[in-house]
Design a protein that fits this description.
The chain is 11% helix and 29% strand. The chain folds into two domains: 126 residues, Thrombin, subunit H, CATH 2.40.10.170; 148 residues, tm1086 (SG structure) domain (tm1086 (SG structure) fold, 3-layer Sandwich), CATH 2.102.30.10. The longest helix is centred in the last third of the chain and has 11 residues. A six-stranded antiparallel β-barrel has the order 1-5-8-7-6-9. The protein starts with 12 loop residues before the first strand and ends with a helix. It is mostly beta strands and 296 residues long. This is DUF4438 domain-containing protein. It holds the Pfam family DUF4438.
């Protein structure tokens, strides 16, 4: 993205975490939007479904967390891991069969979520230690004081299309335009913690519940209308939030694929471009390196 920022003043910190197990309680079943009971996998552990660019919906899953679900055993250290990890940060396994392998943080949920190659995921297991190279919180756009940047590695920012337009707005490309009434669980929470579940992507249920979001992919850039994630998450007419889909299929009513917040501000501060290719997979890892070489 062609935009001036304070990226050269950001601090890099190496934080520790571990692959966390899937958890449950003795009350096994939950119910979906139609009242039908379900028992499905989704959160925690190592999940071999939902790489960047793959469908977010259609899985037999609830609160699908792609790849590695990472947290820290100490509550305070875990909050730091959640708050400081940014989309695009490098995550390296430092123990277990996949030690030395790496992936990329794609967002937050109950855990920090890490996409990696299948070979890395297949060798990983619960309890494996990871190091997260955190960088990005505090990122600010010099020419766009009305726009708050959240949870974004500056390397991803540089690889994204768009930038400052001739009339002074911030051009951002998104794959999907999300209506305000899709915002579900996650409202009222810190925009550096977990994500916002989007309702209306209940594949296979009553069509009256659909908001046309069944085609969402993991990593899609989306615009959330009439929402403000500057200092939390809430409804604010005339404002928008740009996020990236970090979680997938949900069966629980009021929940759904969720975007991690990236930008938020008054709608007039943005020029939003609908672009079917606007997906995080083009802006991280090898894809990011290739784009930098082309730009050079």
């Amino acid at each position: 993205m062609k935009v001036e920022s304070n990226a050269d003043r950001l601090v890099t910190q190496l934080l520790a975490g571990e692959v966390w197990p899937a958890t449950a309680d003795r009350h096994a079943y939950r119910v979906d939007a139609d009242g039908s009971p379900f028992l499905l996998p989704g959160m925690g552990g190592v999940t071999l479904a939902g790489h960047l660019g793959e469908p977010a919906t259609g899985w037999a899953s609830d609160h699908l967390e792609p790849g590695l679900s990472v947290r820290h055993a100490d509550p305070a250290a875990n909050y730091a891991l959640q708050y400081l990890t940014c989309v695009g940060n490098e995550v390296t396994l430092v123990s277990g069969a996949s030690a030395g392998g790496s992936g990329v943080a794609i967002g937050q949920h109950a855990y920090v979520l890490v996409d990696a190659a299948d070979a890395v995921l297949e060798g990983a297991t619960v309890g494996d230690q990871v190091t997260v190279r955190t960088r990005g919180q505090g990122l600010a756009l010099t020419a766009h004081p009305q726009v708050r940047v959240k949870n974004l590695d500056p390397g991803v920012l540089a690889a994204m299309p768009g930038g400052t337009t001739g009339d002074g707005r911030l051009e951002v490309h998104v794959a999907v335009d999300v209506p305000a009434d899709a915002a579900g669980a996650g409202g009222g929470m810190s925009s550096e913690f977990a994500n916002t579940d989007l309702m209306g992507a209940y594949a296979g249920l009553d069509e009256s519940l659909s908001l046309g979001l069944e085609g969402l992919r993991i990593g899609d850039l989306v615009v959330l209308r009439d929402t403000d994630h500057s200092w939390g998450r809430g409804h604010r007419p005339g404002w928008i939030t740009i996020g990236t889909i970090s979680t997938g299929q949900c069966a629980l009513f009021g929940h759904g694929p969720g975007p991690t917040s990236l930008f938020s501000g008054p709608a007039e501060a943005f020029h939003v471009v609908l672009d079917a290719d606007a997906n995080l997979r083009h802006y991280v890892g090898p894809a990011r390196s290739t784009e930098k070489e082309v730009a050079a």
